[in-house]
Give the backbone structure.
Amino acid sequence: MSFEQQLDVYLRARFTLIVLITAEEERALQSIKAVCERTKRPCLMWDMADNFQWLGPAAGSAPSVKEPLAALEHIDEAGDDALYVLKDFHECWSNGQIKRKLRSVAQRLKFTKKSILITCPVQKIPEEFKDEAVVVDFPHPSVAELDTVFNRIARAPGVRLNLTKLGREKLVQAALGLTAAQAYRVFARAIVADGTLDDRDIHLVTEEKKQIIRQSEALEFYEVTETVDDVGGLGVLKEWLRLRERAFTQEARDYGLPAPKGIALLGIPGTGKSLTAKMIGGLWGLPLLRLDAGALFGSLVGESEERARRALQVAGMMAPCVLWIDELEKALAHGGQDAGTSTRVFGAILTWMQEKKSPVFVVATANDISTLPPELLRKGRFDEIFFLDLPTLEERREIFAVHLRKRKRLPQDFDSARLAQESDGYVGAEIEQAIIDAMYVGFNSGREFTTADISAALKRQVPLSVSQRETVDGLRDWLQAGRAQSASLPEGHATEAPSGALADINKVGE
């Protein structure tokens, strides 16, 4: 149901107090005006600067009322069936007399056809109104509305378009989550830069979105540099992602495909689950947001739930995007030691994951599977659950190659086959550290480091698969029980190495 349809239902149902949360007052007023004109309902606006004014065709002279109390008294006594829009009336909520008057008027309007609609940019209404008011979030512009904004600026004199049909679609979709005014500004900025709208202007839209994300305390915008070629192995997961590379296009919608919901990446620490999350953003060309669970929790009553709601709302505004929830078991730890706050935050995130309509692809990573609640991992929350195991022999060879290239060494100068054999049971982060340790040995000896130096560094390490054998074995038993899909191809399965620099799925630790 669109906002205009929703408002029409509320007015016909005689809802007397509606609070509309929006930063786009001008666009919201246009929608309200359209509803009132269609239903032939008079509509008066009031604010502390301009008093009463007609929204739409005037039905007589607008009353001259300056004070909030007087404005409410006029609404109470008026004999019409108008909709009264009070702009920025939340500024009056600190006044107890005005709050009491608004409640009384809203209660008496139940016996009339009049309604009050308050527009404000923040969702903080007094506790007294929780039972009287219905709170509505005004939606951000749809793709169709943003396309109208794009058309308006593209038709301006002197503007050149250098966009394919797909490029235009991507540029407009990239603006999803911006207000109409913000979208207009970013399109105008692109034109002023070089007089042309083309595929390169998508990065300007991304820059605009970064400014919005900075306002959220729990979200962090990640610059995506990793690509699918920066991930070695994980053939099963890569193929799954490749099949969904065009999943957010209109072509996929026309075909009848739903936007993918997300994946859970579980497994052994240090196997590169975080790197995979970053790679997905690069592969699909989508913004990558990281949800900092620790920043969700505040000291005030209701603050944590509000932060979670705001963070998820911002993620929806950025759609299509990738939302990375790292170390999910810590993010959603709920045990009742905080008066139920973490339980409520956890429930809000679960509900959002299940019911979200915006194309936000969730990538959740976790090391300690045993602490995850069963309702999180059931089908419907995620499209698939992948397990990242210890790297296979071939994957370990790729890991050595990528880290040697990363440090400007030629892999063929080293015995990668020997090192892959000797690193059985090592995760990528441990292999990388062995190369770094070997480089220190060579550097301090005034020579180039060698295969032998790396081999010696491996022998000095105690890998996680040994130091925490019981934990690792327990995690691998979880995979063997068929509770997740392996992200890697079976040991010994021949794969074609991707061109360019290979990178280890385990390039960085968790």
Summary: The two ends are 42 Å apart (CA to CA). Residues 68 and 98 are 7 Å apart (CA to CA). The chain has a mean pLDDT of 83. The first strand starts at residue 17 and ends at 21.
